[in-house]
Automatic annotation (TrEMBL):
<dbReference type="GO" id="GO:0005829">
    <property type="term" value="C:cytosol"/>
</dbReference>
<keyword id="KW-0547">Nucleotide-binding</keyword>
<keyword id="KW-0418">Kinase</keyword>
<dbReference type="Pfam" id="PF00696">
    <property type="entry name" value="AA_kinase"/>
</dbReference>
<dbReference type="InterPro" id="IPR001048">
    <property type="entry name" value="Asp/Glu/Uridylate_kinase"/>
</dbReference>
<dbReference type="InterPro" id="IPR024192">
    <property type="entry name" value="Fosfomycin_R_FomA-type"/>
</dbReference>
<keyword id="KW-0808">Transferase</keyword>
<comment type="similarity">
    <text>Belongs to the isopentenyl phosphate kinase family.</text>
</comment>
<feature type="site" description="Transition state stabilizer">
    <location>
        <position position="24"/>
    </location>
</feature>
<dbReference type="InterPro" id="IPR036393">
    <property type="entry name" value="AceGlu_kinase-like_sf"/>
</dbReference>
<protein>
    <recommendedName>
        <fullName>Isopentenyl phosphate kinase</fullName>
        <ecNumber>2.7.4.26</ecNumber>
    </recommendedName>
</protein>
<feature type="binding site">
    <location>
        <position position="100"/>
    </location>
    <ligand>
        <name>substrate</name>
    </ligand>
</feature>
<keyword id="KW-0414">Isoprene biosynthesis</keyword>
<dbReference type="GO" id="GO:0102043">
    <property type="term" value="F:isopentenyl phosphate kinase activity"/>
</dbReference>
<feature type="domain" description="Aspartate/glutamate/uridylate kinase">
    <location>
        <begin position="11"/>
        <end position="297"/>
    </location>
</feature>
<dbReference type="GO" id="GO:0016301">
    <property type="term" value="F:kinase activity"/>
</dbReference>
<feature type="binding site">
    <location>
        <position position="96"/>
    </location>
    <ligand>
        <name>ATP</name>
    </ligand>
</feature>
């Protein structure tokens, strides 16, 4: 692993859950409304206090249903009126309805790169997830966020039996120190033992947190947080606070275990090749063990905006809906 040196600390690492920014039941379809709101929330959270409401859009390429490229240098006039001074964030997104289908159908996550179907699926998966990455970068850029897409495979990430074996973070560090917001994603990568596998965004978040040590981490999902059973169950209860001990084991603090009176159940969708909520809680617990608070909250809501802004760091208000995972000091 290459040593990561940053001139200043990172404020926040954000995970954009695939189910929150895509329509998970429609192949390769983005949830445009959610992505637009999340991008706006990120701009508000990153803003370092300028009162300017004007945005310098940075997507100067043609888009579907947009006949003219509206952004050009001559539109900007006095550049001092625009705010491009943002606090230091890193964004990582999941695949949602991009990539998971290709990976699960070809078995990329299981390895076996010598098999023609797996090799074809590896290529197809990367085409899909990098397509989504570009669209997310463009959405953030339209909000004036100086985003840089960074694919783990292309940046030298690899695994050994699905655990991160190598990751050159120097490019991420240089991008941050240059004033950019790196945008990484779950990706198909080479694996020393299996040949290949899927590196999930949640694992990437944990690795980044270990080396970049952000002040806090936010997982934006399609539900209000972690529940004691599938949230579609009418008896599901939101787990508001989870504590992590020295051994990395986690336990529910609020609501009290006695009030739950039932075993916590966590399920994984059949098409999810990255472990779903099981992986999310496990990786979040490892981050919390570092002394970094983790908030899991529904994307595109007032609750997620409060988490992104760091408003919860000095206490969780009763009217906030989400799950906080903290190290039990």
């Amino acid at each position: 692993m290459e040593e990561t040196n940053l001139n200043q600390t990172i404020r926040c690492i954000v995970k954009l859950g695939g189910a929150a920014i895509t329509c998970k039941n429609e192949l390769e379809k983005i949830n445009e409304e959610n992505l637009e709101t999340v991008s706006s929330h990120l701009r508000q959270a990153m803003n370092l206090g300028s009162c300017s409401t004007q945005v310098m859009g940075m997507d100067w390429s043609k888009r579907d249903a947009v006949s003219d490229i509206s952004s050009s240098l001559c539109d900007f006039g006095d550049q001092c009126q625009f705010n491009v001074d943002f606090s230091r964030f890193v964004v990582v997104h999941g695949a949602g309805s991009f990539g998971h289908f290709q990976a699960s159908k070809s078995g990329v996550h299981k390895g076996g790169l010598n098999q023609p179907l797996v090799k074809a699926g590896f290529v197809a998966t990367r085409i899909s997830v990098t397509t989504l990455n570009l669209e997310i970068v463009r959405a953030l850029a339209r909000e004036g966020i100086p985003s840089i897409g960074m694919s783990p495979y292309s940046c030298g990430w690899s695994t050994s039996e699905r655990n991160v074996a190598s990751a050159d973070l120097s490019g991420v560090a240089k991008a941050i120190d240059s004033g950019f917001i790196p945008v990484l994603h779950g990706d198909a990568v080479l694996d020393e033992r299996l040949g290949c596998t899927i590196l999930s965004g949640d694992v990437i978040i944990r690795h980044l947190a270990e080396h970049l040590r952000p002040e806090y981490v936010v997982f934006l999902t399609d539900v209000s947080g972690v529940y004691d059973r599938p949230p579609t169950d009418p008896n599901a209860v939101l787990l508001r606070e989870i504590a992590v001990d020295e051994d990395g084991k986690w336990s529910v603090v609020k609501p009290t275990p006695q009030s739950l009176n039932k075993q916590v159940e966590i399920t994984v969708a059949a098409h999810d090749t990255t472990g779903g909520m099981v992986t999310k809680i496990s990786e979040a617990a490892m981050i919390a063990k570092l002394g970094i608070d983790v908030y899991i909250v529904k994307a595109a809501t007032s609750h997620s905006l409060r988490a992104l802004r760091g408003e919860l760091r000095h206490g969780i208000p009763d009217d906030w809906l989400g799950t906080v995972i903290q190290f039990s000091r």
